[in-house]
Amino acid sequence: MKDKVMGRWSTYEPFFVQLGDKKVADVVITNHAKLRWSDRVSSENNSLEEICAFLWEKLKNDSIVPYYRNEEDVYLIDDDLVVVAEFSQLEHETDLVGNPLHKMIIVTFLGRMSETMELRDLKSYYSWLRHSRRMTLIKNSRKRR
User: Fold this and answer.
1) 113 and 122 in contact (C-beta within 8 Å)?
2) What is each CA distance from 110 to 40, 92, 128, in whole angstroms?
3) How far apart are CA 68 and CA 20, in angstroms?
């Protein structure tokens, strides 16, 4: 969803928001992210237009920052909401200088750090998830023998 609300003085340059080294001109939300939004973030505002409008406002206000300095796939919104996003270049879309514009693909919403304490350290959270899944598989395989 491209920014529909933004009023532009000039129609020569497409609208984009700078996020790190990416120039975000479009936001796409996957079905998985939409389901996670309704489960973990808000059960009221769960239409795609409302989620995209929320993300555009946060992008414009510089409220989205990388979770880790070196990684560019996990982001924090308002220092609370953890989001996993990927980027792809938009075809036939460039800024005035010729630099490519990007599409921000929201993969999933992990949740709010204020509600889920495990999200404060994602690396240990993911290692705990892998360990618990592995233990569950080991226990199930023992039962079958």
Assistant:
1) no
2) 7, 32, 15
3) 12
Q: What's the length of the chain?
A: 145
Which residue carries 């226990």 as its tokens? 139
The first and second tokens of residue 98, run together, are 């010729």
Closest CA to 52 of 22, 72, 27: 27
> Strand 22-29 and strand 100-112: pairing?
parallel
Per-residue pLDDT tens digits for 58-117 = 998 989 998 887 777 889 999 889 999 999 988 888 877 778 889 999 998 988 888 877
CB 44 within 8 A of CB 122: no
User: What token pair was written down for 102?
Assistant: 């990007």
Both structure tokens of 35: 């389901």
pTM above 0.90, yes or no: no
Side by side, the strands of the sheet bearing 64-66 are 17-19, 22-29, 100-112, 81-94, 74-77, 64-66
